[in-house]
Specification:
Helices cover 13% and strands 37% of the residues. By secondary structure, the protein is mainly beta.
Length: 299
């Protein structure tokens, strides 16, 4: 079977899921200003003054952190930050997405981008092209934001606005759910299956994609009669996986054909292939379809 599967694992981030994003400033010094970010703060020629930031974020506190689970994602020490607040996810098998508003006494936006890029990459974080904003779906990192991943955790810098004496911005983090116990599966997690089928009376492959819920492992599971597919293991329960598939296949233009108990049949967006889903449990569910070529007798 010709297939291409996008894997999310710590060992494969650099080659599959992660691509380098150009930042506004890539060195340790911003040209045209006496500001450095090689130390603990993106500061200017004068000592940082947090008074304006405390006024801008009246409920904020000095020296904010993202918690012990994200101790390797250090924030500028001269900053003021709001309390870390959950904004999405956190349910069964979902990432917990939390947000923090921040203010740093520097009026050059590039300083914040540069500081966080330097600190994160020095601690093993890699640029990511996706972020699970709703807690489950690996959506493309939005324009004008900067996304990072390390292992199965996420970090996103967004909403940067500078004024005369300070920069206001926010960060979001994605904390993973408990990892599933998937016996005998290959290591690594996948967020999408990109694969192919051959329509009846054709030797030209047609591609289709199936989004996968958080922390999903997979194994090919082909059978006789041109039956192709995968057995999968996910962090969520059967109901969570079913809900994820229902929601995201619909958003991608798939049409549900039938449902009988844990079994569902969905038509691809082009309407030319029916794909079967069997949600036995979150730790073992199946996707399969029939590909005609070269065994056209089975179609």
């Amino acid at each position: 079977m010709k297939s291409s599967i996008m894997r999310f694992s710590q060992s494969m981030q650099a080659t599959v899921l992660v691509f380098l994003i150009s930042l506004a400033a890539c060195g340790n010094t911003v040209s045209g200003a006496s500001i450095t970010t090689s130390g603990t703060n993106p500061t200017g020629t004068t000592a940082p003054n947090t008074a304006n930031c405390l006024q801008a974020l009246p409920n904020g506190t000095a020296a904010p952190t993202l918690g012990s689970a994200f101790s390797d994602a250090a924030l500028p020490a001269s900053s003021v930050g709001s309390a870390l607040a959950k904004i999405a996810g956190g349910g069964n098998g979902e990432f917990t997405i939390s947000s923090m508003s921040l203010c740093t006494p520097t009026n050059i936006t590039a300083n914040i981008q540069q500081y966080l890029n330097t600190e994160l990459t020095a601690n093993g974080w890699l640029h990511s092209n996706t972020f699970p904003s709703d807690g489950s779906f690996e959506a493309a990192c939005p324009a004008n934001t900067y996304c990072y991943a390390k292992g199965i955790r996420y970090f996103e810098l967004l909403s940067i606005n500078s004024s005369q004496s300070m920069t206001l911005y926010s960060v979001e983090i994605g904390a993973p759910p408990p990892e599933p116990v998937c016996n005998s599966f290959f290591p690594g997690y996948y967020y999408i299956i990109k694969t192919y089928y051959y329509p009846s009376n054709s030797n030209t492959a047609v591609s289709f994609n199936v989004p996968l819920p958080p922390l999903t492992r997979e194994e090919p599971n082909n059978a006789a009669g041109s039956l192709q597919g995968f057995v999968l293991c996910s962090a969520g329960s059967a109901s969570m996986v079913t809900s994820f598939i229902d929601t995201h296949l619909t958003s991608l233009g798939w049409k549900e054909v039938s449902q009988t108990g844990p079994a569902q049949v969905w038509a691809t967006p082009d309407g030319k292939l029916d794909v079967n889903f069997m949600f036995t449990s979150g730790l073992q569910w199946n996707i399969y379809w029939r590909s005609c070529y070269p065994n056209t007798a089975f179609c």
